[in-house]
Amino acid sequence: MERMNLNDIQNISLGILKDVNDFCVKNNIRYSLAYGTLIGAIRHKGFIPWDDDIDIFMPRPDYEKFCKTYHSSKFKLISSYDEISYIAFSRVCEMEKTLVKEFVPWCTINTGVWIDIFPLDGAEDNKEEWDKRYKNATKMWQLVYLNRGARNKFSSELTMIQVIKLIAKKILFFNGINLKKNLNKFNNIIQKLHFDDCTHWGQLSCCDNGSDEYNLTSDFNELILVDFEQHKFYAIKNYDKVLRSQYGDYMQLPPKKDRHPKQTDMNFYWI
Question: Taking the model in full, what pTM does it have?
Answer without folding.
Answer: 0.94
